[in-house]
Amino acid sequence: MSRHGLVLYLHVHQPWRVKPYSVFDIAEDHQYFNGSDGDMNNRAIMEKVADKSYRPMNRALQELLDQYPEFKLSLSITGTFLDQAAAWTPDVIDDFKRLVATGRVEIVAETYEHSLAFFFSREEFVAQVEEHRQRIKELFGVTPTAFRNTELAYNDELARWADAAGYKAVLAEGWGPMLGWRSPNYVYQPPETKQIKLLLKNYQLSDDLAFRFGDKNWSNYPLTADSYGEWLRSATDEGPVVNLFMDYETFGEHQWDDTGIFDFFKGVIGNWAERSDRTFYTVTEAAETFEAADEVSAPRTVTWADTERDTAWLGNAMQHEAMRHLYALEHDVLHSGDDNLIGDWRKLQTSDHAYYMCTKWFNDGDVHAYFSPYESPYDAFIYYMNAIRDLRFRLASDLRIGGPRG
Amino acid sequence: MNILMLGWELPPHNSGGLGVACYHMSKALAMKGATIDFVVPYSAEHPNASFMRVHAATELSPLHHYGFGAYDTYDEITLTREQMDGQSLRDIQARYVAFVEDFVADSDYDAIHAHDWLTLEAGVRAKQLTGKPLIAHVHATEFDRSGGGYGNPLVHEIEYDGLMMADRIIAVSELTKQLIIKHYHIPTDKIEVVHNGLDTESLAGFEYDWHTYRYLEELKAHGYTVVATVTRFTIQKGLTYLMEAAARASEKYDKLVFLFAGDGEQRDELLRLSAELGISDKVFFTGFVRGKQWRDAYRVADVFVMSSVSEPFGITALEAAYYDDAVILTKQSGVGEALHNVLRYDFWDVDRLADQLVAVATSPALQETLKENVHVEYSKLSWHVVADRCMALYHRLRPQLQSQEARL
Question: How far apart are CA A36 and CA A51, in angstroms?
């Protein structure tokens, strides 16, 4: 019987933020992504996060992999991140290459642009997954065998697609209503699939790290590696796996160095590696090692930032409008043959843009939870719509396709 | 003729039409020989106001002043002295009054001319201290600012006291005069109507830059009609009705786009509404505009809409006429008394406005006729006419003043 284990999966991503792009810029300035403003300056942000998170965390992971032969983890790295890193912080990509070269770091498949294309255009979605697969192959020499959709947005249809595409595992949020009485610490099977397994995030234990670790008002503050290790162990007493899924930037960016997150993490991994009754799995290994305990169905889409029905990405009218107008350009943009234009259109598909337009924190009065470079979701919407208008202008004026619309 | 002019803002530190009206009125009065001391509640340079003396009642910067200007209805006003922190609107008004009290001690004026409720208390104090006639110039009342609501009772009280104490009242329209009679019970013969003017000199001589709104120009080249409003996004302006009419009109005729030039506390609500109505694509928000972006908004437009729920006058409609727009006004806008070659609707009548928008967009003949004819009308409204009326008023008030002095 296989040892129970820890499945650590970290998500690496940076979007191309749209600068304050006003009505006066439309048709005059076609650079939406090169803001000089601090919070909208993608290069400055990449360099800052590289210093605070990517470099120190990659160093920590490398040390742990060198020191503990059992340690394994999985990463997903978006195309929009890879493009920005290649341009401004190429050493970070070299670090990731070294990690993958150990053979104990699995790369997970996803859309290149970190998009929600699955819900708008299946063809475009498949093209982006393929684009990502090629880039991963070319950079790291591996072909992913597990799939995660943007923001862990998941439903039965996605599972069927991933199954048919040959993936062995698909990741989702261990969301209460979908799971019912079941525990996220088992491997499941989605309905009407052949070989694919569903791995569910243990959001309690994941969010203890991702959101609560540095919160001085949290009842468990300060959390020690020993107590957290104890929680992980008890989670794996019955279930075979505990799935810790979170943003890579949790380490150093969301939880700053001075919270002690790096030492804490090394302590947790070190303690776990020294246990003889426990081990680590990558996501595909976990799917291959354990039998599905049950079938779990998700007729409605669930994501990893939502406990309510309205999602942070497609919850309000502005977000629906923005996506509607963006994907309405699909045919014209793709047939333009203009790589710059196609690239810009795809960069605008990154889910972060829609997320910045989310008003639910504003409605709740919890504006501090509004994690965005913009002053408000309304500003985000204005700049974004103006960029879409400029895409139309470029199609019409340079390529004689379509026309400006209003 | 020495005039103490009590105002709340002047260009370039204005956030709306009040400052523009005060500026041009003073300028025209100065050209007719009046000597003007103009008090503002902040300290700043007024580079183009050398025709009068501008006095700062406080050391506060106009940046501070901007944002709680003369235009909003006040949900909360600090009522007690204990709650004052030196920066609230009521504090600044108190300091303004104190400044004017000192200021009038050693000067001699023929008349005190106070603009709107913000300066009325100071005007009344100046009258009490000097015995000189007080003219209350009403550009807007609290009923207008609250956009059909009741507004703030304290502001009403200040308006009521000031209007009662004033020797004469100037209303910027018949609409405003009737409102003053109805709500403040002021005798009709104490009020005269003086429509605002338009300073064409300050508007002339600028080249249109089609790059400013290039995408809109592109849309026009593809047959679109640009409908614009240039305003502050506050409840008084009735913009949610305009947005609903925009959606209604777009159902009938697709080649319409809407330029919302300006900013204000209703912007987010308007954005959300445009998305909910499914027309966010057709609505362009500029943010606060000045200079070229402001001028070119009128020029890129084919149709200008003033959607106000209650607009005492509405100079922007004259500006739109100057820039060759077809003009649509609510019946609740005072400027409609001076412009006849316009389309009018009740502010709540979304269907009618939608009809008018489609009609103007689809009938070149109608659009051209409106543009040509309104162009002739605005030119009759000049600040020189306003200054003449004010001068006549100052003169008429003087004998009354002298007879009062004789009795003492």
Answer: 20
pTM: 0.83
Other CB atoms within 10 A of residue A165 CB: 14
Q: What is the mean pLDDT of residues B111-138?
A: 96
pLDDT given for residue A371 in this prediction: 81
Q: Which two tokens stand for residue B251?
A: 């159902």
Cis ω on the peptide bond leading into residue A222 (within 30° of 0)?
yes
Q: How far is the C-alpha of B122 from the C-alpha of B119, rounded, in Å?
A: 5
Active site residue A291: no
Residue with the two structure tokens 């299946």: A122
CB pairs under 8 A between A and B: 70
Residue B210 touches partner A, C-beta closer than 8 Å: no
Residue B401 pLDDT greater than 60, yes or no: no
Find out whether A397 and A28 touch, Cβ atoms under 8 Å: no
Average pLDDT over residues B377-392: 92
Chain B within 8 Å of A404 (Cβ-Cβ)? yes
Interface residue of A21, A22, A23, A381 to substitute, partner B, most B CBs within 10 Å: A23
The HSE-up count of residue B329 (CA atoms within 13 Å, CB side) is 27
Residues in chain B: 408
Q: Cβ-count burial of A227 within 10 angstroms (0-12 exposed, 13-18 middle, 19+ buried)?
A: exposed
Cα–Cα distance, B192 to B316 (Å, whole number)? 22
Reported ipTM: the value is 0.76
Chain A: closest CA distance from residue B276 (Å): 5
Nearest to B147 by CA among B268, B238, B77, B75: B238
Work out the average pLDDT over B203-209: 91
Please give the Cα distance from A18 to A344 (Å, whole number): 11
CA distance A80 to chain B (A): 27
Report the pLDDT averaged over residues B151-170. Answer: 95
- How remote is the C-alpha of B78 from its chain's centroid? 25
pLDDT score of B181 more than 70: yes
- Per the CB < 8 A criterion, the answer to whether B56 and B50 are in contact is no
Residue A109's SS3 state is strand
- Cβ distance B224 to A406 less than 8 Å, yes or no, reads yes
Q: What is the mean pLDDT of residues B377-400?
A: 89
Name the A residues in 286-345 with CB < 8 Å from any B CB. 316-318, 320-322, 325
For B168, other C-beta atoms within 10 Å of its C-beta total 20
- Which 8-state DSSP code applies to residue B43? -
Which of the 8 DSSP states describes residue A195? S
At B37, list the tokens: 């001391």
CB atoms under 10 Å from CB of A156, counted, come to: 17
Residue B75: what pLDDT? 45
Which pairing describes strands B225-230 and B303-306: parallel, antiparallel, or unpaired?
parallel
Residue type, B90: R
Quick one: tokens of B13?
């530190």
DSSP symbols for B184-251: H---GGGEEE------HHHHTT----TTTTHHHHHHHHTT-EEEEEES--SGGG-HHHHHHHHHHHHH
Nearest to A23 among B224, B255, B285 (CB): B285
Mean pLDDT by 10 residues, chain A (406 residues): 94 97 94 84 96 98 98 98 97 98 98 97 98 98 98 94 98 84 95 97 94 92 96 94 97 94 98 96 98 93 63 86 95 94 98 90 62 89 95 88 74
Q: What is the pLDDT of residue B216?
A: 96
Please tell me the predicted confidence (pLDDT) of residue A366.
Answer: 62
Which helix (H) or strand (E) segment holds residue B38: the answer is: strand B35-40
Task: Categorize the per-residue pLDDT at B404 as very low, low, confident or very high, splitting at 50, 70 and 90.
Answer: low
- Chain A residues with CB under 8 Å of B287 CB are 22
- Asked if A24 and B281 come within 8 Å (Cβ–Cβ), the reply is no
Strand partners, A11: A76, A247
| A17 DSSP assignment | P
